[in-house]
Write a structure and sequence with these properties.
Elements (H helix, E strand, L loop, with lengths): L13 E2 L5 E3 L2 E2 H8 L3 E5 H16 L5 E6 L6 H9 L3 E4 L2 H9 L7 E3 L6 H9 L4 E4 L2 H14 L3 E8 L21 E2 L4 H11 L3 E7 L10 H14 L11 E3 L17 H19 L5 E4 L3 H4 L3 E13 L3 E6 L8 H5 L6 E2 L9 E6 L8 E8 L7 E4 L20 E6 L2 E6 L4 H5 L5
Parallel strand pairs: 4-20, 5-6, 5-13, 6-7, 7-8, 8-9, 9-10, 9-11, 11-12, 12-13, 15-17
Antiparallel strand pairs: 1-2, 2-3, 4-14, 14-15, 14-19, 16-19, 17-18, 20-21
């Protein structure tokens, strides 16, 4: 049975005969009862379907394409195994994410290690486990990695991250490809020219190609075309200096919808613009057919995840606001407090109930800014009701914290009426396990 904001929910979302939200054939109230709340529910069909859409959209337009899942959106061993089964490599940004790739038995040749300030320990670990590519972000890292590789007697394949000074018109905190950015070697200042020449001369580094990332989420297509054209045109000057560009990555940043009037471009639209710009300039400049790397993260897991919460205290402030508090909040989803991100919400137990009042869904944390959804029309809510917030699969779980010493939620993957626990709920003991008394 369809409902009005179905496009924000996983593919398998439905309403059962008891008027309850179901995902992957599982009744969400039964999931809440079995696993407790807050609970993050991932739909296996959506996870796999999004992986396949990216592989098909780019591969059908440019056969030498490779899709890497951007782990920072959220990764654990369970998610890493699913994306690997769908043929995706991994983009990791820390030693911890790299360790998850190792624990999940990922193909290390398909793992790309990004990040703006990798530590010596992280780089040592990357070489120890055979990380396929390291995406170098600074002169400090360029020198350090060459020294570590020389000491180990290996030649490490790398990409250089460039900053093309292209504004994708997204949130300032997640804009990464402009001049005023901590990320990458700037083309505008000339740092990228020095970095490319230094990498080409490095005895223990093999410069395979270049990477840039404009930011996220990006709802416009034109910035991709501009940036691809800008970077490829700039790189042409280095062909005579020994640059053999075998790989090229325009990053990720592909958007999803969070509220019902927010419509991102289709994956096919992103693919059309990027592959057209890439193939045209590669042909014009004589670059051949380098591997085109894409790094979707949010767009793989975002829509696939739905957060479930239980309603607790309800406070009515006459002529001001009605606060409906839930048992989670900024500890499991910091995005509304950090970015002002907006979400939708539904009453999972009475999906056909008419909205009758304006409420604010507040969290349980000791911050006035701990609000999940402000001023949303909902049916009359009561303590004990289960609220479902769609589009919760990206960044909310990976940015979760133990603020106020609340444990992070359990996470399940659902399919064909079965729920598979991929992360258990944190206990008090878990949160104190590292304390030394």
């Amino acid at each position: 049975m369809p409902f009005d904001n179905i496009e924000l929910f996983p593919y398998s979302a439905d309403i059962n005969g008891r008027d309850r939200l179901t995902i992957g054939g599982c009744d969400t109230l039964e999931l809440a009862d079995e696993f407790g709340t807050p609970l993050l529910v991932f739909d296996d069909a959506t996870l796999r379907g999004m992986c396949r859409q990216f592989v098909d959209a780019f591969g059908s337009r440019y056969s030498n394409s490779r899709v890497l899942y951007a782990s920072k959106a959220f990764v654990n061993a369970g998610i890493a195994k699913i994306v690997a089964e769908e043929g995706l490599g991994l983009d990791v940004v820390s030693g911890g994410e790299l360790a998850v790739a190792v624990a999940a038995d990922s193909d290390m040749s398909s793992v790309y290690f990004h990040g703006t300030n990798k530590t010596p320990e992280e780089l040592e670990y990357a070489l120890e486990v055979g990380c396929g590519r390291i995406v170098v972000d600074s002169f400090y890292e360029l020198n350090l990695l060459n020294d570590i590789a020389a000491r180990r007697g290996v030649v490490q394949p790398i990409l250089l991250r460039l900053s093309p000074s292209v504004d994708p018109h997204t949130h300032v905190h997640t804009t990464t490809g402009i001049l005023d950015s901590k990320f990458g070697f700037s083309i505008e200042t000339g740092d990228s020219t020095h970095a490319i020449r230094q990498a080409l001369a490095a005895s223990n580094l093999d410069l395979l190609g270049l990477h840039f990332h404009l930011g996220s989420p990006i709802f416009e297509l034109e910035p991709y075309a501009i940036a691809v054209d800008t970077v490829l045109t700039y790189l042409a000057q280095f062909k005579d200096e020994g640059l053999n560009m075998r790989e090229f990555s325009p990053g990720g940043g592909f958007a999803i919808g969070y509220v019902r009037d927010q419509l991102p471009p289709a994956i096919d639209d992103y693919a059309e613009v990027i592959t057209n710009a890439f193939t045209r300039r590669c042909e014009d400049l004589g670059f051949g057919q380098p591997t085109l790397l894409l790094e979707p993260g949010r767009s793989i897991v975002g829509r696939a995840g739905v957060a479930l919460y239980t309603v607790g205290a309800i406070k009515q402030i006459p002529t001001v606001r009605k606060y409906v508090s839930v048992d989670g909040g900024m500890g499991d989803n910091i995005r509304p407090a950090l970015y002002g991100s907006e979400y939708e919400a539904v009453l999972a137990s009475r999906m056909s109930a008419e909205s009758s009042e304006l409420v604010t869904l507040a969290g349980k944390y000791c911050e006035s800014g701990d609000v999940l959804v402000r001023d949303i029309e909902m049916p009359t809510l009561e303590s004990g009701d289960i609220i479902a917030i769609p589009s919760s699969g990206a960044y909310a779980p990976s940015m979760a914290s133990n603020y106020n010493l609340n444990g992070r939620p359990a996470i399940v993957v659902v399919s064909d009426g079965e729920a598979n626990l991929i992360r258990r709920r944190e206990s008090f003991q878990d949160m104190m396990a590292l304390d030394v008394v």
